[in-house]
Amino acid sequence: MLTRRGFVAGATATGALAATGGFPAIAASTITIGAVQPFSGGLELFGNQAKLGLDLAVKEINAAGGIMGHKVEVKYEDNKTDPKTSVERTTSLIRRDKVLALSGPITSSARDAMAPTVKRLKTPLLYATNYEGGACDRYLFSFNTVPNQELEKLLPAMQERAGTSYYMFGADYVWPQKMFEAAEKIVDGMGGKTVGKEFTPWGVKEFAPVVRRIKDSGAKVLVFALPGADGITFVKQAEDLGLLKDVTVAFLGFAETYLGAFGAGKGQNMWVTVPFAASSDEPGVKDFVARIRAEAGDGVPISHYVMTHYNSMMALKGALEKAGKVDKEALIDGLEGLAFDTPTGSAAIGAADHHVTMNMYLAKTEGDGLKIVEPLGRLAPKAGCG
Amino acid sequence: MADALITVLDASNYVLILMLVALGLAIVFGLMNVINMAHGEFMMLGAYTVLTVERAGGTYWLGLVAAPLVVGAVGLLVEEVVIRRIYHRFLDTILATWGLSLLFKQAIVLLFGPGSFSVTTPMDLSVDILGTPYPAFRLFIMAVAVATVAFTFWLFFRTRFGLAARGVIANRDMASCLGIDTRRLDRLTFAYGAALAGLAGAVMAPMISLDPQMGLGYLVPAFLAILVGGLGSIAGPLAGAAAVGATDNLTATFFSPVWAQLVVFVTAIVVIRVLPRGLVAARRRES
C-alpha cells in the first residue's frame, strides 16, 4: 500500500495511468483513488473505519473485473488529523500520484482546508462523514448525513418518548453549533421548548458543573453533540452524578465505535438516527457486516462510516460506468443524479447539491449494542447549498 | 444551602485532583528544574496500568496500588536513560520529555489501539448530602488527594530523605561535599514525581475516557497552577492549583465552560504580571 507503483505520467490529463504490466486478460490502466484520512493524531478510529469500507469496496470491484476493465487501487495518506497536512497530502496525491478522485477526510476543518485545492486542481472529493452542511461545489460530494437527516425524525421521537423540554450541549465548534441551530428550529416547530444551550471547549475533564446545570434546568431531553473522548468522559460523569436518570440523551454523531467505551451496563438508552447500524436484521446489512468481518475480524466495531465510505466507492464505479469513460469531469457528470445500491437499500445523489438521499434508522443503545427501533425510510438532505 | 455545599464539593473535587497532578509536576519542575512534558503521559500510563490489571482479572484496588509502582519504575528508568544527561540543559528537557510523551502515546496506540476505554467505577454508590446524592467515589478521590499531599509534605519536611533532597535543591555542590549521594536523590525524586502522576491517573481512571491523548487535558492546567503558584516550593503549586481549579470550576458552574477557560487564562496572566514569582514566592535564593 505504501510502496509507490512505478507510475507513468499519462499523455492525457485523465487521472491515474499507472502501468500494470502483469494484469491478465485486459491490459488496462489502474484507476488510483487518493484517500486523505487520519491514521494518527487523535481520530485514528475514524480513519480506520473509513479504510475498512474503502478496502472492501475496492476488493469487490476488482474481483468483479474492475471498472470497465480498469483495476482500482486506493493510495492512503495519513493527514495526522491536521488540516495543513491534509492540504499537503491532497496536493501530492493529485500532482504526483495523478489520482482520479479523493476520499476523506473526517473533520470539517480538514475538508474546508482541502476544498480550495481540489477546486483549483479540478479533482472530485468524495467526503463520507456526517457534517454541518453547506459544502457545495462541483468538485465536492457528500455521502453521509447533514443535520436535517439526523434531527428531523430523532427529535419528534424524543418528544414522544421523553418530554418537550430540551437542553443542548456540545463542543464549541462549527458542527455542534449548526446542529443546534437546526435542532432549535425543529423543537420550536413541534411546540417544544429549548431550556438551555451550551458549548464546551475541547479537553475539559470535569463536567460536574455542566451536569448540575442540566439537571437544574429540568430538561427531559439532552441533545448531545460532544464527539470523541470528551463525550465519553461526559457520559461517564453524567451517569455517576445521576443525570441520565432524569434526562434521555439524543446523541448526535454517534457511531458504533463509542460502544464499549462507556463500560459494561453504562451509556444505555441513548437515542440516535443513523444511516446504518451493524445490528440490523436487513439481509443487505447482515451480508455487508459478514463481508467486513471476513476481512477485518470479529473484534472491530462496524459503524456507518464503514458503509458510507464503501458507498462512495460503489458510487464512483456506477458513475464511471454511466459516463462510459474514465476522467474527472466524466466522473462528476456521472455522479450527479446517480441512483445506486447500498447495503441499506437504494440511494441517490442530488444532481444539484451533491448530497445523498438514503435510508435512515432510529436506534438506541441497549446492552452492548445499537438496537434499531424503527426504520425511517429515505430521508432527503437539506444540504444548505444557496 | 444544599446547593452551595454541592458547588463547594464539586469545586474542591476538581481542585484536589489538580493538586494531585500538579504536585508531581511541581516536584520535578520546581525542585529539579526539569520541565516534564511527559507528565500527562505518566498519568496516562497509570490509568492504563489500572486497565491492564482489570483486564487480567484483578480488581480496581489492585490496579490503584500497582499504578504508582509501575509508573515510578518507568520514571526511574527514564531518569537513568534520559533525564540525568540533560539536567544542565534546561531547554533540552522540554524537547526530550516531549519526545518521551510522543513515545509513550504511540506505545499505547500500538499496544491498546487508538480507541477509548473505560474502567468500571469501583464504588457504584452515592452518599446522601443534604438530600443530594453524591458519588462516593468522588469523595474517595478527594481523600486520596488530601492524603497524598499530606504524605508528600511529611516526606519532604519530616524525614532525612526530605532534608537531604531539599539540601540538594538549595545547593547541590555543598550537599555533595557533605557526603549526600545526589545521584540517588535525583533518581528517587524523579521517580516519586512520576509515581504521583501514576497515582493521579489511576484514581481518575474510572471518571474519564482512557485514550492515548488523555494526558494533555490535565497537563495544561497543572502547568498553569505551577506558574500561578510559584516555583521552588511545594506549597506554591498547591496554592496555584487551588486558584486555577476553583476559578475554572466556579466560572463553569455560574457561567459556562467556555467562559471558564477564558477567565482562567486571563486571571493567570494578571497574577503572573502582578506577582511574577507566583502566589507563594520561594524563600530560597537563586544558587
Helices and strands in order, then pairings?
The complex is a heterodimer of chains A (386) and B (287).
Chain A: E1 31-37, H1 44-63, E2 72-78, H2 83-95, E3 101-103, H3 108-120, E4 125-127, E5 140-142, H4 147-151, H5 154-161, E6 165-171, H6 174-189, E7 193-200, H7 208-217, E8 221-225, H8 228-240, H9 243-246, E9 248-251, E10 270-274, H10 283-296, H11 304-323, H12 328-335, E11 339-342, E12 345-349, E13 356-366, E14 369-379
Chain B: H1 2-32, H2 39-55, H3 60-81, H4 90-112, E1 126-129, E2 132-135, H5 136-158, H6 160-170, H7 172-177, H8 182-204, H9 216-229, H10 235-254, H11 257-274
Antiparallel strand pairs in B: 1-2
Helix pairs in contact in B: 1-5, 1-8, 1-9, 1-10, 2-3, 2-4, 2-8, 3-8, 5-6, 5-8, 6-8, 9-10, 10-11
Plain-language structure description:
- The complex is a heterodimer of chains A (386) and B (287).
- Chain A has 386 residues and is of the alpha/beta class.
- Chain A has 2 domains: 31-145 and 283-354, Response regulator (Rossmann fold, 3-Layer(aba) Sandwich), CATH 3.40.50.2300; 148-274 and 362-379, Response regulator (Rossmann fold, 3-Layer(aba) Sandwich), CATH 3.40.50.2300.
- Chain A is 37% helix and 22% strand.
- Chain A is built from 12 helices and 14 strands.
- Chain A has helices at residues 44-63, 83-95, 108-120, 147-151, 154-161, 174-189, 208-217, 228-240, 243-246, 283-296, 304-323, 328-335; strands at 31-37, 72-78, 101-103, 125-127, 140-142, 165-171, 193-200, 221-225, 248-251, 270-274, 339-342, 345-349, 356-366, 369-379.
- In chain A, the strands form 2 sheets. In chain A, strands 6, 7, 8, 9, 10, 11, 12, 13 and 14 form a 9-stranded mixed sheet that branches. A 5-stranded parallel sheet of chain A has the order 2-1-3-4-5, sandwiched between helices.
- In chain A, a hairpin with a 2-residue loop joins strand 11 and strand 12.
- In chain A, helix 1 (44-63) runs parallel beside helix 11 (304-323) and helix 11 (304-323) crosses helix 12.
- Chain A is globular.
- Chain B has one domain (2-212).
- Chain B is globular and about 60 Å long.
- Chain B is an all-alpha fold.
- Chain B contains 11 helices and 2 strands.
- The mean pLDDT of chain B is 90.
- In chain B, a hairpin with a 2-residue loop joins strand 1 (126-129) and strand 2 (132-135).
- A two-stranded antiparallel ribbon of chain B has the order 1-2.
- The longest helix of chain B is centred in the N-terminal third of the chain and has 31 residues, at 2-32.
- Helices cover 72% and strands 3% of the residues of chain B.
- At the A-B interface, helix 1, strand 7, helix 7 and helix 8 of A face helix 1, helix 9, helix 10 and helix 11 of B.
